[in-house]
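Limitations
The structure tokens in this dataset are predictions for the assembled complex, not deposited experimental models. Users should treat interface geometry with appropriate caution, especially where small molecules or nucleic acid strands are included. An illustrative entry is reproduced here so readers can see what is and is not provided.
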Amino acid sequence: MAPGMGGSPPGRRRPGDFVPQRNEEPAGELDLEKLEQQSRDMMELHMLNRDNAEFRENSGGFLDLSYNGRVYEDVQVVRMFPFSRPDEYLSVRESGDQAAEIGVIENLPRDFDGPGEEAVRHQLALRYFLPAIRKIYNVRQEMGCVYFDVETDYGRCQFAFRSNSNAVTRISESRVMIQDLDNNCFEIPDIRKLTAGEQKKLDVYLT
Amino acid sequence: MKQLPGSLRQELAREGVQDNSISAVCETDLDETERLVHGWVCLAGDTLWICRSLDTGHQTFFFSRKGEDRLAMKVARHQARDLEKVEEGEQTWQVDAVPVSHLGELSLRQQGRIGQLYLPGKDGRVLAFFTAGYMADMLQLVQAVKRQREPDHLPDERPGGMQEKRPDRKPGGTPGERPDRKPGGTPEKRPDRRPGGTPEQRFAQPDLSAGREPEGEEVPGRRPAGADNRHYMVRLLSYFRSQLPLVALSGLCYLLIAGLNIVWPYLNGTVLYDKVLAKDPAFLEALHLPQGGFAYALILVAVAMFVTELVQLFIRHVKAFAGARIVNRMSNEMKKDIFRKLEELSLNFFQNSQTGGLMVRVQQDADTVADFFSSDFPDVFIQGFTFITTAAVMLGLQWKLALVSLVAVPVVAWVSIKLKTRMHSLFGQRNRSNRRLTGLLNDTITGVRVVKAFGQEEQVKKSFDMRNQKVQKSEMDIVGYQNRFTALYTFAQRLVTLLVWAMGAWLVLEQNAMPYGLLITFASYVTQLNGPMEFLSRAFRRYEECMNSAGRMFEILDAVPQVKEPEKPVTLPQVRGHIELRNVEFGYIPNVPVFQDLSLDVPAGTTLGIVGRSGAGKSTLVNLISRLYDVWSGEILIDGVDIRQLSTAQLHGQVAMVSQETYIFMGTVAENIAYAKPDASMKEIIRAAKLASAHDFICKLPQGYDTVIGSSGASLSGGERQRLSIARAILADPCVLILDEATASVDTQTEQEIQQSLAWLSRNRTTLSIAHRLSTLRDADRLIVIEHGRIVEEGTHRELLDKKGTFYQLKELQTKALAMKGLE
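Predicted assembly:
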């Protein structure tokens, strides 16, 4: 690991003050201390856990976070590794365009429990709405678009994606994700469990 | 010293020059009208002899074009000399003597590809003309003449500062210390050593006659000397060594099939017709059957025939299974070997090879070879065995008819052998046209942006059509050539069948020399002989095809990386990152050095900014430090150890480069960041991304660090790719960091963000930074300005500005240019 990557002890600087000052810094006028401070901010991972942070679902159904004595409203929870580690390394970000990172949940079931964990999970379920395809009824290609008619665990639906658009991503040997024209995502947890006919319909779009 | 041809030695002896008085010689290959004429320049005592052959018929001419051609050139020269040896008796020479005292400042110069040995001054004249390849030898001769004229002369005092003795060029060797070098200090300025200076300096290039051995060269596109088909065959067979049990099983199957092939016609013909249907009582006795029990005998024969067929089917199945397994493994092994070799080869090899061509080699050639070994090679045994046994049985049964059946075999064999050579070149032609087509496809697909931007679609289509037609033509050539033979073969086969029937019928009817069943058996055997005959007709063609592919495959496998792994690598327990360049000389093209006598010292943990105009050699310098190329002479040391003595793993583990060309491999974002450290934890990856200002944009990707990027994945902007490559370098945690225009492809704001990451990253780490924007180098501990492969200025940012030299000019120019754009 690079020297200094260990970083400063947590809580030395209020993460609420974590504003992207570096973008406003004119080039060349680099003050060494400031630079170091910024570097520390840039590299630091503020780990959130039940001891220093509390999640609560507010009345509007959004997620609030109290962390180091400060309350952040309507925070977003982003999975850094949505496929490989869905419950680990969750980036908790402020609302708004900038969406600066407040902290990171390293392991949700380990670091949180009870209503806090539930609230985060609920947010994640909304953010990562991912119906799993159980059955493929029909696939047809027309005018450069591919139309799928499928049965998912949320019910039957139809969606479309552009052909030749890498819309079908292979996450592992057997797991496949499809992103449609509206950025909705569908998952086929195990293509081997599809019938030979269904696999044949899908085959041409697989990478 | 090179050996003068005998005829020239005799000629010189007639002039009173003794062999032992000749102290230096150099070959020449041109006359003053640039015709190819063999000549020599010899220094004997105090006379320089300019010799020219009066025979011009057998000259061989070789240009030194690129580094990789050097071996071929050497080999060709060597062959040419052999040729001369043969013909030397016929050569006559014209010799002119020039006393050394008259020679003044004998000099060398180069005009384009032609070098001249000349006497400058008022009565100056050109003494000899030669091509660039002889320049190094000629330089030594000129030095010898100068020593002769001024025996007390010290080389470094001469104007032009020529090196008396070139440093030792053995790869990995340590060159001798230059006497004028101050140890540890800054190298002396050598303003006289411009590449555009005297020819002696320009031609101080890697010696072709001494120094690097030919086997140290990578030789793409050429057959290794001495390699022939048999040699390839032996090497290909070695791939079977690891699967001997399967090979043995396969061989057994072939033998059984060949044996059963003999049994079947015998049952079908002689036994069925002459024994059972002809009601031979001896046959019943032999089978211990009751008298008149021919119905039982018939059933028995039918069962035997059925069982034979069944057994044969089973054996064929086992054989197919074993064969497929062997060949699959072999093909995999070969591909693995080629790929490994490609990974070992240095950058030069790839820069001189077409990507498409290499892809064809890895994929198709291995398959072609494996294909031969799956279908044709076992046939050598099965068909050979079938042929020998069938012929033997036929000869035993009825020798006259057997001879008639075999009459076509030598003809087919002879024609096959005749066709072989032509076939080889046809296959080579087909492969080349395929390679060109693949190359074009590769180019067009990777460069589609340029093709479209310049509206070159039509042009590309045309050249595709052209190359495609060539592929088609080469295919048709092969098919056409093959068809001629197929026609001949079919004709021979029909003729033989007809002859056998005719002669057999005559023997049965007129002579009564053989029974009818035997004729049926014979006819079956003739059909059986078609197998070996047909095999003969294609064996040589397939063999040539395989050898053609094998040749190309082994060419890669035999290529020796120019940047070699040391035999006994030195391991540094802890790398501090002190970099030192001592009298480095390097160039990409022979005779055209980029650097000459470049020395540089970068203390550990400091930042060195490298400044210079485009093409000054900045990137070359850092490429040499990361040992993507090896220096011609001189040495590059890290912590006092020559980098050629360090293992490449350690070197590349300690020297990381963030360059203007970022490459994203097919894989997830996390895998790309962890490329140099695959065992990195997720936390480390995230931290590296944070440091490289990449974390935020990665989190915004719908699949975060799991997003698949690269050739068929999501596309990233130039700045995003650049930040990923910085994260990669951060995670690698090198002792020496090289930033080669790391922020060239990003906008000003992103550049500022990245600069901060880089500034943090380069603390306490030896950093070599090449930056497009000079202002970004102001924090460097020291700056050097490179021009024409030399360091022309060095100092801190402030010092260089105060000096008002090249750096100042560059900086002024850039400030003005940026001010005009309103950027600074």
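Some entries come with short summary sentences. For this one: Residues 254 and 359 of chain B are 35 Å apart (CA to CA).
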